[in-house]
Model the fold of this input.
Amino acid sequence: MIEARNLTKRYGKLLALDDLSLDIGPGEVFGFIGPNGAGKSTTMRILACLMRPDSGTAKVCGRFVESEGPAIRRLIGYMPDFLGVYEDLTVDEYLQFFASAFQIPRKQRRSIVDGVLELTDLTEKRRSPVEGLSRGMTQRLGVARVLIHDPKVLLLDEPASGLDPRARIEMRTLLAELGRMGKSIMLSSHILSELAELCNSIGIIERGKLLFAGTIEEAYRKAALGDRVRITLEGGTDPAVAASVIEGDGRVLRVSTNGTTLTIDLAPEVQERHFLIEKLVAAGVRIGALRPEEARLEDAFLRLTKGSVQ
Ligand SMILES: Nc1ncnc2c1ncn2[C@@H]1O[C@H](COP(=O)(O)OP(=O)(O)O)[C@@H](O)[C@H]1O
Ligand SMILES: [Mg+2]
Done:
């Protein structure tokens, strides 16, 4: 759905995009991750046909951004990082406005706007002024707006930025729903963990260069990160003694202790965890709980962006 080839873009002397290529397939949810100033918005503006690259090319839905902008704009939904100001409009009027801008026949507008209000959980706010919405609602309204013409491809620039934890969860639920609807989605973020469970693939960009593209599992592998397991001890076992039982094992990279908890980093590619329990139990250690650690995307990201991994 998206093929970018060797995109380069300068703002004056600043090289904002440096020979960037990426592909996003049908139904893929692609997380575009990088720190502020990395070039995410620039890339997305080029794909949305709002800006031309200095060199390189891109196709969206099989059409060239440089020559087929109007056709592409009907097939994509682009949500910019800032929504702009629409004073004195209610939520409903705002969406009606975009429905007419997309030349949706008047008779269909009501049901389409109702549909996107429902999907983005804004039905109750339909008569509220856009200006007074919370940040979370404003972002959901931004998503509602790009769904009006039922695009195949969504380009969402930092949809979860500035949201409180609750609003972030609501946004994540909404984006997951859009993924299930089969849309191809490119969404950017400078916060990695925001995207971990949502995306089937990620691209990591820094200083205009794509450092990595692939699945999250591939990112872990490339960063040579193995699984991490936490074990809580019971029965007054000395954590240092418990650590010494498993430290020598070739499958274990590192063991650290904190109170009654052991944190164990396994070597990359090691899938098995049961040997940890067997060894500890054999040594008379009582185990309260064993938990695999949540996705360690931040660690993978740091390693991939430190330039230490090629
Ligand atoms: N219109 C512009 N004029 C000059 N510099 C810009 C402009 N837009 C972006 N930049 C610069 O280009 C770089 C990439 O910006 P951007 O694509 O917005 O990154 P991101 O979205 O990843 O934060 C940054 O250094 C930014 O300051
Ligand atoms: Mg940006």
Remarks:
- The longest helix spans residues 165-180.
